[in-house]
Amino acid sequence: MNVLLLGASGRIGQRTATELLDRGHAVTGVSRSGTVEGLDDDEFVAVTGDATDSDDVAKLATGHDAVVSTLGPSDDESPEILTEMMDAVIAGLRRAAVDRLVWTGGAGGLKVGPETMLIETDDFPEEWEPVARAAIDAYDILSEAEDLTWTYLAPAAVIEPGERTGEYRTAERELVTNDEGDSYISMADFAIALVDELEAENAIYAYLGTGN
Known about the structure:
The chain is an alpha/beta fold. Helix content is 30%, strand content 25%. It has one domain (2-211): Rossmann fold (3-Layer(aba) Sandwich), CATH 3.40.50.720.
């Protein structure tokens, strides 16, 4: 598969690129700088791109089989840039005639009860709320894109660098926890889950929570 990876220079993006390459996929890694550290593979090409520009996305996506996003706002950007990116990416894919998209979201919109999302709980960090709400808004935009075969993959409540175990669990729109109620996944295992979802043969319209 020929994959366009948006946000390839980030911590999740780099691990996702490595996972894709290890499985034999060709990867075009997009970042603002046009460079991705630590990747040296004949099937990897680093390019400059702006995920808020639908024309740029269309040009980059043309000729690819799928687009994977590990995009997120940088420290100096407003969280609302997530919705700008979603609008631009969807429009760009349509122009490029690419209909497969896997989008990395956030855990805030996952359910922890029948009517309660993680972001609505008392323990949810206040400083994370703006990004979490922007991620939920981005999902709402994607959920209307019925002409795309898309997957919105949200991580566990805690995602950080760690061991690649190859083990994870998913639950549709529910926060995945262990027996002690903790919700965790390493970035390496999240990359495995993301590529597994990309490679799934059936059309997927799902908001999946992923964790160990």
